[in-house]
Design a protein that fits this description.
mainly alpha; elongated
Length: 148
């Protein structure tokens, strides 16, 4: 998970983990703990959230909203996009809140940009997974023209 998230997170935060730790001054030990929490715990949690929310969104759109024999109103691209947007939003919220909860005891260090950055990265990855999986799953659904 580290390779999926670490470089991208440091780019979004605008600083490397080394700079974050060096800039912590006397709290360098706490900054190292925060880095380790992200690398050892939060990246895995974020990946699990990504998979769960993407799976639920795909199942909802292709097999619940557009079930066989249904009215077919959900076949439109806008409903596919709304489903993607809802899943991405939930991913941002849950990932950010989990990150904040795990590093909240280190309130003296400003970690919000890392926590929010992880949520944004996860939403971007979710969009890519949702799009890619949609190209495969649409063949097994009545919504076989969405997203294209």
């Amino acid at each position: 998970m580290k390779t999926l998230y670490n470089g991208f997170l440091q780019w979004i935060a605008g600083t490397t983990w080394g700079q974050f730790i060096a800039g912590a001054g006397e709290a360098q030990e706490d900054a190292t703990i925060i880095r380790n929490i992200f690398i050892q715990d939060l990246y895995l949690y974020a990946f699990c959230y990504l998979l769960v929310f993407a799976a639920f969104a795909l199942i909802y759109y292709y097999f619940i909203l557009n079930k066989r024999g249904g009215s077919g109103f959900g076949f439109k691209l806008k409903y596919w996009f709304y489903t993607l947007l809802a899943a991405a939003s939930l991913t941002i919220i849950v990932t950010t809140l989990t990150s904040v909860a795990l590093v909240s005891r280190f309130h003296s260090l400003h970690t919000l940009k890392y926590c929010l950055g992880l949520g944004i990265i996860n939403a971007i990855y979710l969009a890519a997974v949702f799009f890619g999986a949609s190209l495969i799953i649409k063949k097994f659904s009545v919504a076989n023209r969405t997203p294209f």
